Amino acid sequence: MMRRYRRKNSSIPIIVEGRNDLASLRKLSFYGEIIVFNRGISITSFSDEISNKYREVIILTDFDNKGSFLKDRFYGYLTGMGVYVDLYLWNFIRKHVPIRTVEELPAEFEREVEKEIQM
Hints:
alpha/beta, Dna Topoisomerase Vi A Subunit, Chain: A, domain 2, 4-stranded parallel β-sheet, 11% strand, globular, magnesium
């Protein structure tokens, strides 16, 4: 799953909430464009900027109430502006990985790798 999204990120940007989320994805070898939302602009202005520049994006906000709210708002605005929004990774992590924030992904990934090594 992660390998697939690393490849996908080489041509499609990922939207995250903050700089720490960006750093976490970099630790997981996501080297494509990652766009940080928390820059002091509104969701609608941010969505306008995104829709003017991209035809497809991946959303990876946190998995708490705020992150879920942002995901839903971005999805609504961006799809309404003709942008394809990929939520598969967000939904997969929310359902299968016991974390609440994107920042926790590297540590969780490391734990999973260690489990596999011990088997």
